[in-house]
Design goal:
Helix content: 55-70%
Largest sheet: none
Order of helices and strands: HHH
Structural class: mainly alpha
Number of helices: 3
Distance between the termini: 11 Å
Number of strands: 0
Shape: elongated
Oligomer: single chain
Length: 76
Protein backbone atom coordinates (compact mmCIF):
# COMPACT_ATOMS: atom_id res chain seq x y z
CA UNK A 1 0.00 0.00 0.00
CA UNK A 2 2.86 2.35 0.84
CA UNK A 3 4.48 1.69 -2.54
CA UNK A 4 1.25 2.48 -4.33
CA UNK A 5 0.94 5.78 -2.47
CA UNK A 6 4.53 6.72 -3.37
CA UNK A 7 3.93 5.87 -7.04
CA UNK A 8 0.69 7.85 -7.11
CA UNK A 9 2.28 10.88 -5.44
CA UNK A 10 5.29 10.76 -7.78
CA UNK A 11 3.10 10.62 -10.88
CA UNK A 12 0.87 13.37 -9.52
CA UNK A 13 3.85 15.64 -8.85
CA UNK A 14 5.22 15.04 -12.35
CA UNK A 15 1.92 15.92 -13.98
CA UNK A 16 1.47 18.96 -11.73
CA UNK A 17 4.87 20.18 -12.84
CA UNK A 18 3.80 19.84 -16.47
CA UNK A 19 0.49 21.55 -15.69
CA UNK A 20 2.20 24.47 -13.93
CA UNK A 21 4.62 24.92 -16.80
CA UNK A 22 1.76 24.80 -19.28
CA UNK A 23 -0.29 27.22 -17.16
CA UNK A 24 2.47 29.84 -17.02
CA UNK A 25 2.99 29.53 -20.77
CA UNK A 26 -0.74 29.88 -21.40
CA UNK A 27 -1.11 33.00 -19.26
CA UNK A 28 1.71 34.76 -21.08
CA UNK A 29 0.32 34.15 -24.55
CA UNK A 30 -1.88 36.72 -26.22
CA UNK A 31 -5.53 36.09 -26.94
CA UNK A 32 -7.93 33.91 -25.04
CA UNK A 33 -10.08 30.97 -25.86
CA UNK A 34 -13.09 29.50 -24.11
CA UNK A 35 -11.91 25.96 -24.85
CA UNK A 36 -8.62 24.60 -23.60
CA UNK A 37 -6.12 23.26 -26.11
CA UNK A 38 -4.38 20.39 -24.32
CA UNK A 39 -1.50 20.18 -26.77
CA UNK A 40 0.58 23.30 -26.21
CA UNK A 41 3.66 21.87 -27.85
CA UNK A 42 4.32 19.48 -24.98
CA UNK A 43 2.64 16.55 -26.71
CA UNK A 44 0.06 15.88 -24.00
CA UNK A 45 -3.59 15.45 -24.91
CA UNK A 46 -6.81 15.30 -22.91
CA UNK A 47 -7.47 12.08 -21.00
CA UNK A 48 -10.16 9.84 -22.41
CA UNK A 49 -13.45 9.69 -20.53
CA UNK A 50 -13.17 7.08 -17.77
CA UNK A 51 -9.42 6.58 -18.32
CA UNK A 52 -7.44 5.87 -15.16
CA UNK A 53 -4.65 8.22 -14.12
CA UNK A 54 -1.97 5.57 -14.51
CA UNK A 55 -3.23 4.55 -17.96
CA UNK A 56 -3.21 8.21 -19.00
CA UNK A 57 0.40 8.67 -17.88
CA UNK A 58 1.43 5.38 -19.52
CA UNK A 59 -0.12 6.53 -22.81
CA UNK A 60 1.17 10.11 -22.72
CA UNK A 61 4.68 9.58 -21.39
CA UNK A 62 5.78 5.93 -21.34
CA UNK A 63 9.31 6.84 -20.19
CA UNK A 64 7.97 8.73 -17.18
CA UNK A 65 5.57 5.90 -16.37
CA UNK A 66 8.32 3.27 -16.61
CA UNK A 67 10.62 5.39 -14.47
CA UNK A 68 7.95 5.71 -11.78
CA UNK A 69 7.18 1.97 -11.89
CA UNK A 70 10.89 1.16 -11.59
CA UNK A 71 11.18 3.52 -8.63
CA UNK A 72 8.10 1.95 -7.04
CA UNK A 73 9.45 -1.57 -7.56
CA UNK A 74 12.81 -0.64 -6.05
CA UNK A 75 11.14 0.19 -2.73
CA UNK A 76 10.66 -3.46 -1.82
Amino acid sequence: MKKLAVLFLSLTMALLLVACTSSSHRSSSSGSSSSYDYDKGYGYTAPKSGQSFSDYVKEQDPDLYNSMVDRYNSLS
